[in-house]
Design a protein that fits this description.
The chain has 80 residues and is an all-beta fold. The chain contains no helices and 4 strands. The chain binds FE2/S2 (inorganic) cluster.
């Protein structure tokens, strides 16, 4: 399995409606922060997250969070 690509060095902060979301874990999706199927062949799969209520979500963009799919500030520890 390869390492995920850093899609963004800042989280994707989005007002989300209740529903089921497929967060891109591989970093290759063109529809960040959501999966578009580009993970094919990477050995990685999206993380499915169900939101029961509307809320503002900070989706991890660097793909290094320890609390995936949510941002935990890991981007601040990335080498520049
Ligand atoms: Fe990245 Fe699907 S495109 S997990």
């Amino acid at each position: 399995m390869s390492e995920p690509k850093i899609a963004s060095r800042t989280p994707y902060v989005i007002d989300c409606a209740p529903g089921t979301y497929a967060w891109c874990s591989c970093g290759h999706s063109k529809k960040q922060p959501y999966c578009d199927g580009s993970h094919a062949g990477t050995g990685m799969v999206p993380k499915i997250e169900k939101l029961d209520a509307a809320r503002k979500v900070a989706w991890c963009g660097c793909k290094k969070s320890c609390n995936k799919p949510f941002c935990d500030g890991a981007q601040s520890k990335l080498p520049s």
